[in-house]
C-alpha cells in the first residue's frame, strides 16, 4: 500500500488525500499551464479519481473551463490551483505538485509541451542559487 499523500491550498480551506498510487508525474510547459498557475511551467501528478478524496473544504472549490476539454479546479478563497480534469484522461485528475503538503513526494519524469518551454528553463540549474533570498 502506498503511503497516503496529503495536499492543501495556501489558506488550508481545502485539504485532500491521495490514497492510491501516482500514475505519472510531469512538468507541463504549455501556455495554458503558465496562465493557470502564473509560473513558468506546472508540475502535475496524475491520479485516478478513486485514489483522491477530499478531507475538507470541497465547497470552497471553484471550477473554470480552461478549454473545451479541460477544467481547472481551484480554491476560490486563496486562488491555489489544486487539480485539472481533462476529457482525454477520464476518471483521472491532474493534481498540482505544488499543492502537495510534501512536494518531494513525487518527482516528474517527463517534460511535456516542450514546444512552449521558456528558453531559460532548461538551464535553470546553472543559475546562481541562494539558500534563501537574494544576497549581494
Ligand atoms: Zn485556499
Ligand atoms: Zn499544460
Describe the fold and architecture.
The protein has 136 residues and is mainly β. It has one domain: Metal Binding Protein, Guanine Nucleotide Exchange Factor, Chain A, CATH 2.170.150. It has one helix and ten strands, in the order E-E-E-H-E-E-E-E-E-E-E. The chain has one helix at residues 31-37, and strands spanning 5-8, 15-18, 24-28, 42-48, 52-56, 61-65, 70-75, 81-86, 92-96, 110-112. It has a seven-stranded mixed beta sheet. It has a three-stranded antiparallel beta sheet with strand order 1-2-5, with no helix packed on it. The longest helix has 7 residues, at 31-37. Bound molecules: zinc ion (ZN) (2 copies). One zinc ion (ZN) binds next to helix 1.
Comma- or semicolon-separated keywords:
binds zinc ion, seven-stranded mixed beta sheet, globular, Metal Binding Protein, Guanine Nucleotide Exchange Factor, Chain A, mainly beta, 136 residues, single chain, three-stranded antiparallel beta sheet, 5% helix
Structure in a nutshell:
By secondary structure, the chain is mainly β.
Please give the CATH class. Answer: Mainly Beta
- Residue-averaged pLDDT: 96
Q: What percentage of amino acids are in beta strands?
A: 35-45%
What is the CATH architecture assignment? Beta Complex
Total domain units: 1
Fraction in helix? under 10%
The counted number of beta strands is 10
What's the main sheet like? 7 strands, mixed
Sheet with most strands: strand arrangement: 6-7-8-9-4-3-10
The backbone outline, from C-alpha atoms, is globular
DSSP helix count? 1
Protein structure class: mainly beta
First-to-last CA distance: 48 Å
Order of helices and strands: EEEHEEEEEEE
Rg, nearest Å: 15 Å
Heterogens: zinc ion
